[in-house]
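Need a sequence for this fold. Nothing fancy.
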């Protein structure tokens, strides 16, 4: 019986390792789990592309600006000369309409707004004039601490918005490289 004892211990150890292996294989690896997707809200949930008559993107620091306006034929044009690339102008309009934010914060008092990038004469201004004669204005401030969003002031609302960076970066690129073909 003493000669069978080492064999019995090896068999028990083998069965235990086999059971552990089967259990570990049933637990899905964490890398296959879907990543959490942030939930976005629209800054202007009732606004449509058809409501837009004029869109202006302006760098308040340099004074550089790019403006598109709707023609009577419902195409986009610019005052700066040349022909606006219609598909890009449509994307600019859709970006304004769908402008995503993740949260709002309490609006800080005026003396604390510089911490959020709101310094007079600096920053990015986005203006949309609507068919009904009203306007929408967004002042874009600094990056959030994570660098994934911007702080923004919207119209005369009493909240500070955290706006998705990709949308604002797209508008900045259009300001720096206007989608205009030479005339």
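Here you go.
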């Amino acid at each position: 019986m003493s000669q069978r004892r080492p064999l019995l211990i090896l068999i028990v150890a083998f069965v235990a390792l086999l059971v552990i292996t089967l259990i570990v294989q049933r637990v899905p690896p964490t890398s296959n789990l879907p990543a959490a997707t942030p939930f976005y809200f629209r800054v202007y949930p009732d606004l449509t592309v058809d409501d837009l008559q004029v869109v202006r993107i302006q760098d308040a620091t340099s004074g550089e600006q790019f403006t598109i306006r709707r023609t009577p034929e419902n195409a986009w044009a610019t005052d700066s000369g040349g022909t606006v690339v219609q598909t890009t102008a449509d994307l600019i309009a859709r970006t304004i309409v769908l402008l995503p934010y993740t949260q709002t914060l309490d609006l800080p008092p005026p003396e604390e707004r510089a911490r959020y990038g709101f310094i007079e004469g600096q920053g990015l201004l986005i203006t949309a004039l609507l068919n009904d004669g009203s306007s929408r204005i967004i002042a874009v401030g600094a990056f959030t601490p994570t660098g994934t969003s911007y702080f923004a002031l919207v119209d005369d609302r009493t909240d500070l918005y955290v706006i998705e960076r990709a949308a604002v970066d797209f508008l900045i690129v259009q300001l720096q490289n206007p989608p205009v073909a030479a005339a």
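For context: The longest helix spans residues 5-26.
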